[in-house]
């Protein structure tokens, strides 16, 4: 099983109590990785929110990934960082984080995919599979065929992100992609645990036999 299989990216609009509830319930439902994504809070709140969810994730052995900020990841001793194309360059991040931490990079074009083959990263986020209201500044939409082609030419794990929900999940999972990252399908569910279990069941039943 890939550690990226069902990857929750948190909703930065949710207050601390909601964040803790969503992460607790998503872990109960079987998420395999959690990224804390903060776009509005200051660095103190970012660290506070990371420390609030960290014990829940540690108890369940679910890695905590910090979005954008290597300093926050180092401060809380998170398991890794996810960087975009305008965040800290990956060589600098790898130098600061050391060889063991998980480092992910968003890939928004075929040229970036080619360049990523030579970078010291653990996985890429294929940005974005479909347009999504959760992040409106995505540069390119890979679609199902782009995802399949990327899987054919890139050797490290690929995480699909953007506009993935219950009704299009099976097709994405059937490509054999290593991970599926979701914000709203988990964070905005009425019953987070049940939604997570159900998403995971779709992923596992859609995978081609090895
Ligand atoms: C798993 C994953 N993939 C892509 C992204 C997007 O990162 P980025 O391009 O840096 O955009 P922001 O999330 O920082 O707005 C991601 N966060 N996670
Ligand atoms: C955080 C993020 N990054 C993306 C990218 O394509 O780089 S899309 C995205 C948000 C995904 O939200 P939802 O699952 O609600 O569509
Ligand atoms: Mg970023």
From TrEMBL:
Where on this chain does Mg(2+) bind?
68, 87
Keywords assigned by UniProt? Magnesium, Metal-binding, Thiamine biosynthesis, Transferase
| Protein's name according to its UniProt entry | Thiamine-phosphate synthase
Listed EC numbers: 2.5.1.3
Q: Which domain of life is it from?
A: Bacteria
Q: Name the source organism.
A: Marinomonas communis
Pfam families registered for this protein in UniProt: TMP-TENI
Q: Which InterPro entries match?
A: Aldolase_TIM, ThiamineP_synth_sf, ThiamineP_synth_TenI, TMP_synthase
> Binding of 4-amino-2-methyl-5-(diphosphooxymethyl)pyrimidine: at which residues?
35-39, 67, 106, 135
UniProt keyword annotation of Transferase present: yes
State its role. Answer: Condenses 4-methyl-5-(beta-hydroxyethyl)thiazole monophosphate (THZ-P) and 2-methyl-4-amino-5-hydroxymethyl pyrimidine pyrophosphate (HMP-PP) to form thiamine monophosphate (TMP).
Q: Which family is this protein grouped under?
A: Belongs to the thiamine-phosphate synthase family.
Q: Does the keyword Magnesium apply?
A: yes
Q: Mind telling me which PANTHER family this protein's record contains?
A: THIAMINE BIOSYNTHETIC BIFUNCTIONAL ENZYME, THIAMINE-PHOSPHATE PYROPHOSPHORYLASE
Q: Name one GO biological process term.
A: thiamine diphosphate biosynthetic process
Q: Where is the Thiamine phosphate synthase/TenI domain?
A: 6-186
Designated gene of the protein: thiE
Q: In which pathway does it act?
A: Cofactor biosynthesis; thiamine diphosphate biosynthesis; thiamine phosphate from 4-amino-2-methyl-5-diphosphomethylpyrimidine and 4-methyl-5-(2-phosphoethyl)-thiazole: step 1/1
What are the record's GO terms for cellular component?
Answer: cytoplasm
Q: Which reaction does it catalyse?
A: 4-methyl-5-(2-phosphooxyethyl)-thiazole + 4-amino-2-methyl-5-(diphosphooxymethyl)pyrimidine + H(+) = thiamine phosphate + diphosphate; 2-[(2R,5Z)-2-carboxy-4-methylthiazol-5(2H)-ylidene]ethyl phosphate + 4-amino-2-methyl-5-(diphosphooxymethyl)pyrimidine + 2 H(+) = thiamine phosphate + CO2 + diphosphate; 2-(2-carboxy-4-methylthiazol-5-yl)ethyl phosphate + 4-amino-2-methyl-5-(diphosphooxymethyl)pyrimidine + 2 H(+) = thiamine phosphate + CO2 + diphosphate
> Which residues take part in binding 2-[(2R,5Z)-2-carboxy-4-methylthiazol-5(2H)-ylidene]ethyl phosphate?
132-134, 163, 183-184
MF terms (GO), sorted A to Z: magnesium ion binding; thiamine-phosphate diphosphorylase activity
Q: Which cofactor does it need?
A: Mg(2+)
Q: How is the cofactor bound?
A: Binds 1 Mg(2+) ion per subunit.
């Amino acid at each position: 099983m890939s550690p990226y299989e069902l990857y929750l990216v948190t909703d930065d609009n949710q207050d601390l109590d909601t964040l803790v509830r969503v992460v607790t319930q998503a872990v109960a439902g079987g998420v395999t990785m959690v990224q804390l994504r903060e776009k509005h809070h200051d660095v103190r709140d970012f660290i506070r929110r990371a420390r609030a969810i960290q014990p829940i994730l540690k108890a369940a052995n679910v890695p905590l990934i910090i979005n954008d900020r290597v300093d926050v990841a180092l401060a809380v001793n998170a398991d890794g960082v996810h960087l975009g194309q305008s965040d800290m360059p990956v060589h600098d991040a790898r130098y600061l984080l050391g060889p063991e931490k998980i480092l992910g990079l968003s890939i928004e074009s075929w040229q970036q995919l080619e360049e990523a083959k030579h970078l010291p990263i653990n996985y890429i986020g294929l940005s974005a599979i479909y347009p999504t209201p959760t992040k409106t500044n995505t540069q390119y939409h890979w679609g199902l065929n782009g995802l399949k082609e990327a899987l054919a030419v890139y050797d490290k794990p690929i995480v699909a992100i953007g506009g993935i929900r219950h009704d299009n999940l099976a097709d994405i999972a059937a490509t054999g992609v290593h991970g599926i990252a979701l914000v709203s399908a988990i964070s905005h569910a009425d019953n987070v645990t049940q939604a997570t279990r159900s998403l995971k069941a779709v992923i596992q039943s859609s995978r081609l036999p090895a």
